[in-house]
Amino acid sequence: MAVKVVQEWLNSCSGCEISIVDMGERLLDVLALVEFVHSPVLMDHKYFGQLGDGKHLEIPEAAVGIVSGGVRNEEHLEIIRLMRQKCQIIVALGTCATHGGIPALSNSYSNQETLERYYGTESTDRPEEFPNQGVPTLLDACSALDEQVKVDVYLPGCPPHPDHVFAALVALVEGKPLDLPGRSVCDHCPTVREGKGQVKQLRRFLQPPYQQSPDEPLDKMRCILEQGMLCMGPVTRAGCGGDGITPRCLTARVPCRGCYGPVKQDGNQRLDMLNALASNGIDVGSLPETVSMLRFAGAHRMLRPARKA
Amino acid sequence: MGQLINIQPVTRIEGHASIAIQLDDRGEVQDSRVHFMSLRGFEKFVEGKPAEELPRIVNRICGICPWQHHLASNKAVDRCFGVTPPPAGRKLRELMQAISHSEDKILHFYFLAAPDFVMGPDSDYGVRNVIGVAKAHPELARRVVRMRYATKMILEKFAGKAIHPHAGVVGGFSRVLLEEDRREFLGKMKEMLEFALFTIDFAKTQVFPKYLDAVASLGVINTGFIGTVDDHGALNLYDGKIRLMKPDGSFVDFDPQDYLDYLGEHVEPHSYGKFPYARCWNEGFSLDPLQPRGIYRANTLARINVADKMATPRAQAELEEFREKFGRPAQFTLLHHWARLIEEVYACEHAIELLEGPEITDPNVRAKVEPKAGRGVGCLEAPRGTLIHDYTTDSAGMVTKANMIVGTTHNLGPISLSVNQAARTLIQRGVVDETILNKIEMAVRAYDP
Prior knowledge:
The structure holds 2 protein chains of 2 kinds. Chain A contains 8 helices and 7 strands, in the order E-H-H-E-E-E-H-E-H-H-E-E-H-H-H. Chain A has helices spanning 15-21, 26-33, 74-86, 95-99, 111-118, 162-174, 248-251, 269-279, and strands at residues 3-9, 34-38, 62-68, 71-73, 87-93, 138-143, 153-155. By secondary structure, chain A is of the alpha/beta class. Chain A has 2 domains: 3-174, Rossmann fold; 181-304, no CATH class. By secondary structure, chain B is α+β, with helices and mostly antiparallel strands. Chain B has a domain at 1-38 and 415-449. Chain B has 12 helices and 14 strands. In chain B, strand 13 (385-393) and strand 14 (399-405) form a beta hairpin. In chain B, helix 3 packs antiparallel against helix 10, helix 6 (179-207) packs antiparallel against helix 10 and helix 11 runs antiparallel to helix 12 (434-445). Chain B is globular. Chain A: Keywords: Oxidoreductase, Periplasm. Chain A: Its main location: periplasm.
């Protein structure tokens, strides 16, 4: 019997859903094993009845609820709470769901500040009032799912690699435990590390890392951090390379920015990175700013509006 | 006060929206509203970040068109720092743009739109989806999935990451295209072109003819159009001047750096999403269905309308056939689907052109860069419309101000008008059923929001 699945997206970009589609032909195998009973992107099940005359939000019961995106407004909150009631297993799909993701950068600002800018840009005719009719009220911050409900399975990544989405769906269908890579991006990175380097200052990523030739394989290139550019690999959870293992940023010869979130679910990428840099004698004052170290993990109250003087 | 109908959420679209239709006591449509629900505030939270990091932050605006945000952002930062990418760096960006357009259009046509046309707008919602299509046409489904995957894997293999890319860098591109990869990608894009030609032929012979009545009636409105063209007036997805066309077909061309002189954004109390409008028409903004003001459309139909021609031969032949049938500008909303498939042919042909060009494998892909104070507007065509990123940096190259007009938002006004038109035409004397409500949503889906 097919496993019933509810899929929802909250404060999200739809990249996680496209990652599901990017499984290739494995997608067709998965579709044969699961039965989507609610999925706004794929099918036409509605919240308030198919005729739009219902009074209460309705989501069908299912074995598995897959949710991408963080929780940013009252509608998101209502949906995730109802899904928790209706689904046996809640899967947090993607770093927005597990740690807030990029949109949680807005946690550095109050809603008032965000609204003032968004409705006050140079191209915008500034309204007397911000929109407030039939749109869900914003919550004070963008939170990860587990700040609101219990989460059973964490599948981070921005987006999660299709190999892991596939592995997770198969494990859920077969009722087997899911084995995802732990440890850090560096543990899967083939570049050459020579131990403590001579680097005392960090440069911004304005020039390519040094390579002897354009086709030099990655396992001959010196570690980007040891070349003196910030790379979040040491404090970022592994897995972005999927079954191919090699971290995807490094494949393109650019440094990691932390999109799988902290190595441990409750880790703090900024704190851990600053500690790692300091213990290697690198002047953290050479960095232009450090909020970006939490660009994927600003939920869980990691980022907060500055206190007013 | 009559019945209130909520279509919530609007489904098989790529964003978050709902529709509210208010009927009067006689059961006729009194008013309709489309609520665009998402507000994330990128314009605020990119402030204070190093500008060169923005292409890797703002790509998260959209997981379906991350390449377009990534590349528009790179173009804006280049301009802030006063740097011009070397020819190969620029061409590699342009190649990524063409390939990502090609897979996006396949995704929308087969996964999101096709259920309405292949299964039928009045089919049960349980089968009116991609899974239903896959069961009804298993061989086609396998071919679609395989072709799209092959294209996506070019992006993945060469650029490291297909969704939320990072290979575009300020000053150019992070990777050099090796000859063996060039040959492999060229072969794949030639296959993709074959598939694009198959798809448009399949649509023209087996899908569109069944729906000509719907095309001529569903969601039909009269608006202006926006898109990007090159110096010869041909459609260009990566660079050029913006052409803003009035409903009567007359137009102005402008440099994207001057967009503030031509476009404005209006705010409605029922939508977080803002409503861009043609400020330069000096008629203001209005969603009054009888007398809309300032409304133009973006996306495939708009680009096909504003372009004098297509720069590649197969796409040009398709455009000529389309114009012969529907004129210029073509206004029927459902023609977005047809126009999308013409652009699909163009995107594949253009990717092949780039891969066959001499400069694409040049190892000089990235110019030297120094952060500095400046302002830059980065503009290109996202699948859903003209995309504008506008940044200002301080002397350290940190972002002090950012404004973005995102492809889909140009169409929020037109979508609202098309929904109103569809609802008024289809709902009479209070009779509402699932097919009617789905048809109203089809007017939205044409815009692929």
